[in-house]
Amino acid sequence: MSAMSLTCDPVEVGFDPARLARIDGYFAKGVEDGRWPGWLILISRRGEIAHLSACGHRDVAAGLPVEPDTLFRIYSMSKPVTSVALMTLYEEGRLLLTDPVAMYLPEFADMRVYQGGPAAAPATRPAAEPIRVWHLLTHTAGLTYEFYHESVVDEMYRAAGLDGPYPAGLDLAECVRRWAGLPLLFEPGSRWNYSVATDVLGRLIEVISGMPLDRFLAERIFAPLGMRDSGFEPVDPTRMATLYGQARDGQMVPIPPPPARPALLSGGHGLISTAADYHRFTQMLLRGGEFEGARVLGSRTVEYMTRNHLPGGADLEEFGRPIFSEISNSGVGFGLGFAVVQDAVKQKSLASDGEYNWGGAASTMFWVDPAEDLTVIFLSQIIPSTVRPVLGQLRQLVYQALVDPPR
Fold it and tell me: I need a labelling partner for 222 at 20 to 30 A (CA). Which of 39, 85, 155, 271 fits?
């Protein structure tokens, strides 16, 4: 179990305690009016945990509270972990970011791009550009998700038996094979679309390293960083938070959990973790790839990953496929596994330029702010996250509580 508690007086790291209390007051109202089952917030600055709070229940019916060691399904907060894992192989010279993915996964040779027509008889053309490793890391490969219901290609994913987060009976290798057999939504590198790309990265890790993804993540990230509660199955089911959805009447309803040990080791959405464990991961990033003597990445690699890699310095608003977002994507680029704030004024969000972040489908999110030496984690368990906007409100509440002179 990962123990966790405050490690400083908030005043010592620049926070006003009365202003910090506004955070809990704001989000507690969401539990009181039934918008949230429960939540946990962790704020760290200058390496010290300055704010740690929890409210509500991890299991509403059983009356079990959210506690510091509660286990959460972090969904797409898995993506930065997988991206970091892939970059450990990059640092060993095992691949180049410009390598065609087909060098390692031959099923991605001779890809075709959707041009028009129905899912049963699509018109396609040969892709002019191969999918490269950096396309996967930046979600510019032309892949998609089956749950969008926005394009014919999305429909083709569902028709290929790839519906839902854990397609029945399919492991990672078979899912990747089926994705590779479908047309791309667009030419690789020409647009941004949130997708199964990080799951393909997971398979790339398996092929290059010669070990399954769960073992690789354990050896390269979880064990070195002391993330003892993180993995693809719960270390203690009694500590798991129940997953909830929203009924048509607005009430929360429990959702049957995914398999305790899924066949699909999804590097894009499959991990379970705790606030303490993910805090260790964010601290490693903030400190340039090292935490408590364990170096996962070199500092230059972390810096490179957290720059905007979209062509021409574009932001997601102009380069991305407009599907969903809690707040404006103006002024926000994308790095190798993270959204990156380029211009907080353009985004109209209280943040620091250079912040990087991501979230998960069940209302989880984090950000790392190197300029303020700050990390923030929010964890809950209700789907979809887009009906419970977090990032904008939590940002403004965190930064209004910082009262020391800006550096």
Answer: 39
